[in-house]
Amino acid sequence: MASASPAATSTQATSPSGLAVFKTIPYAFMLPEILCGAWVWILVAATSVSFPLLQGWVMYVSLSSCLISLLLLLSYLFGFHKNSENWKVLDSLYHGATAILYLSAAVLQANATIRSELGPNLPLYYQLNSAASFFAFITTLLYILHAFSIYYQ
């Protein structure tokens, strides 16, 4: 009878915990996601919010995903995931769904930016809206990269 060695049976990659989270690729995207998402929320909140229906969705997506990503990051830092495969599926689904929501928010913010250029707003609001659009698209890209990298890990 041949018995399998423990090294041969555990070929799955383990999720890091503690400060090692910041050194591995899929999880290293989490801090930039949180920071860029916070910038989107801050920049939109700094404008006069001329289009509340458009920019309200942007603020909701950016703030809620920032808070949920922060909770997810803290759970990885404290090791609550315990290297569960279900946790990786949850992480991939969350980041994939958030990428879709952020893409819709980025497009709506870009629309609000274009509309604010034509309106009687101050040039400062146009610059803030432009910066919020830029960071919204960057955050969308970060969420997409995280979702695919955790999926293919």
Automatic annotation (TrEMBL):
<keyword id="KW-0812">Transmembrane</keyword>
<keyword id="KW-0472">Membrane</keyword>
<protein>
    <submittedName>
        <fullName>MALL protein</fullName>
    </submittedName>
</protein>
<feature type="domain" description="MARVEL">
    <location>
        <begin position="21"/>
        <end position="153"/>
    </location>
</feature>
<feature type="transmembrane region" description="Helical">
    <location>
        <begin position="27"/>
        <end position="51"/>
    </location>
</feature>
<dbReference type="GO" id="GO:0042552">
    <property type="term" value="P:myelination"/>
</dbReference>
<keyword id="KW-1133">Transmembrane helix</keyword>
<feature type="transmembrane region" description="Helical">
    <location>
        <begin position="57"/>
        <end position="80"/>
    </location>
</feature>
<dbReference type="InterPro" id="IPR050578">
    <property type="entry name" value="MARVEL-CKLF_proteins"/>
</dbReference>
<feature type="transmembrane region" description="Helical">
    <location>
        <begin position="132"/>
        <end position="152"/>
    </location>
</feature>
<dbReference type="GO" id="GO:0019911">
    <property type="term" value="F:structural constituent of myelin sheath"/>
</dbReference>
<feature type="transmembrane region" description="Helical">
    <location>
        <begin position="92"/>
        <end position="112"/>
    </location>
</feature>
<dbReference type="InterPro" id="IPR008253">
    <property type="entry name" value="Marvel"/>
</dbReference>
<dbReference type="Pfam" id="PF01284">
    <property type="entry name" value="MARVEL"/>
</dbReference>
<dbReference type="GO" id="GO:0016020">
    <property type="term" value="C:membrane"/>
</dbReference>
<dbReference type="InterPro" id="IPR013295">
    <property type="entry name" value="MAL"/>
</dbReference>
